[in-house]
Specification:
By secondary structure, the chain is α+β, with helices and mostly antiparallel strands. It has two domains: 34 residues; 186 residues, Glutaredoxin, CATH 3.40.30.10. Helices cover 46% and strands 11% of the residues. The chain is built from eight helices and six strands; from the N terminus they run αβββαβαααααββα. A six-stranded mixed beta sheet has the order 1-6-5-3-4-2, sandwiched between helices. The longest helix is centred in the first third of the chain and has 33 residues.
Length: 232
């Protein structure tokens, strides 16, 4: 009987150690991809500085601008992109998205994926962004021309020449520079009219905040009145 109890205790301790180790690995992976947990939400007065190098989706005159520091190989970015698509469908003339390229060093194809969005016509941009996130698991496995065909890019020859260029792309380098300036440590890092979320907002939070801002209500105590949507 004591031997059986000893064996049972040993198995229990081993399983506990495995669970704890798995939890730590998950936390470390999430921190590397999605930024530090518990980061304090705050208003960033200089948020418009982030717009110049951004890839814009939607009407830039929309009263709400969501800035996302993103990496096309980041799974959390792919999930958040789906949230943004649902949000823009719900508020089609109220929300625009400014995607700031912030490829992470552990994603070897993220820079070229960012370049791919710069190699298409403006009319093809949104579809290319959607397709890269939708087919994220194929990045590095399929050719960039394959992605271009899937996104409906018309001039494949020009696209292939552009995406194969190995020189540094200013829009990507500027995004990385801005990320460092504003202490971005993971993706997606999200701002809404300058309000920087402490963590990527889930749908319920994102929709509530946009609804409040559209209605002229402060979604948070520190949210500045001048960043609310103008009321007509």
């Amino acid at each position: 009987m004591p031997d059986r109890l000893d064996r049972l205790l040993s198995v229990t301790l081993t399983l506990t150690a495995v669970v704890i180790a798995g939890s730590l690995v998950h936390r470390e992976f999430f921190a590397a991809e999605a930024g530090p947990p518990g980061q304090k939400a705050k208003y960033v007065a200089e948020w418009r500085d982030m717009l110049q190098p951004a890839t814009h989706i939607g009407d830039r005159r929309a009263p709400i601008t969501i800035i996302e520091f993103a990496d096309f190989q980041c799974p959390f970015c792919a999930r958040f992109h789906q949230s943004l698509r649902r949000l823009r469908a719900e508020f089609p003339d109220k929300v625009s998205v400014a995607l700031v390229h912030f490829p992470l060093p552990n994603h070897p194809n993220a820079r070229t994926a960012a370049r791919a969005t710069d190699c298409v016509d403006e009319s093809e941009l949104e579809v290319m962004v959607d397709y890269l996130f939708e087919m994220q698991d194929s990045i590095g496995k399929k050719s960039w021309e394959w992605f271009a065909r899937g996104a409906g890019v018309k001039d494949l020859s020009a696209f292939s020449r552009c995406v194969s260029d190995t020189t540094a792309l200013p829009i990507v380098e500027r995004g990385i520079e801005l990320g460092r300036r504003f202490e971005v440590t993971g993706t997606p890092t999200v701002l809404l009219n300058g309000w920087r979320f402490g963590a990527p907002p889930v749908d319920s939070v994102l929709f509530r905040v946009v609804g409040d801002v559209v209605a002229g209500r402060k979604p948070y105590r520190g949210f500045p009145s001048h960043e609310l949507a103008p009321q007509r």
